[in-house]
Amino acid sequence: MKITTKQLTFSAVFAALIFVTTAYLFHIPTGFNGGYVHLGDAFIYLAASFLPTPLACIASAVGAGLADALTGAYIWIIPTMIIKPLMAAPFSCKGPKILSKRNLLMAVVGGVICTIGYYLADVVLVGNWIAPLAGILTGLTQPVGSLVLYYVVGFALDRVGFKSKMNLAKI
């Protein structure tokens, strides 16, 4: 796989956007084991809609993992660096638009992966299957908010033809 300078640059930009929107913008602590709700997943979805899958997964892991590291949520760094790339993996960067039918469906799938992934991580950390159920409701608010933001930003970028102008999907 040959990576272009443009792809590498956009990967770094997406990692930074994921980091900032996860760590600082709309960062709402939930009180459950240091977890928090954020809108950074919308930028994971956008990265996965623009970049080839390996680069989107790396940007997701780096941006979200760095957010956990720099906000004191150290216990979540490893689960985050596993879950966030899994959320990005099913998307497709092929095609001229961000909001394809596939990507809209994959944003829902990404939210399910996020909710189940963090529930399972919580099960491992807490040591039982019952207590982590308390975090499911807040775990669902994050993917819904991120889906809405992904749709709004994706719609705006599609209206101006941004994706086809950037031409990042070709390797």
Please tell me about this protein's structure.
The structure is a single chain. The protein is mostly helical and 171 residues long. The protein has a single domain, classed as Arp2/3 complex 21 kDa subunit ARPC3. It is built from seven helices and two strands; from the N terminus they run αββαααααα. Strands 1-2 form a two-stranded antiparallel sheet. The model has no long low-confidence stretch (mean pLDDT 90).
Key features?
171 residues, single chain, two-stranded antiparallel sheet, globular, Arp2/3 complex 21 kDa subunit ARPC3, 2% strand, mainly alpha, 2 strands
Topology (elements, then pairings):
Elements lengths: L4 H19 L4 E2 L6 E2 L2 H11 L2 H18 L6 H12 L12 H26 L9 H24 L2 H5 L5
Antiparallel strand pairs: 1-2
Helix pairs in contact: 1-2, 1-3, 2-3, 2-4, 2-6, 3-4, 4-5, 5-6
Taken from the alpha-carbon principal axes, the silhouette is globular
Number of helices: 7
What letter string, H or E per element, gives the SSE order? HEEHHHHHH
Estimate the mean pLDDT confidence.
Answer: 90
Q: Strand tally, please? A: 2
Largest sheet: 2 strands, antiparallel
Structural class: mainly alpha
Summarize the amount of helix as a percent range: 55-70%
Rg for CA atoms: 15 Å
Write a short abstract of this structure.
This protein is an all-alpha fold.
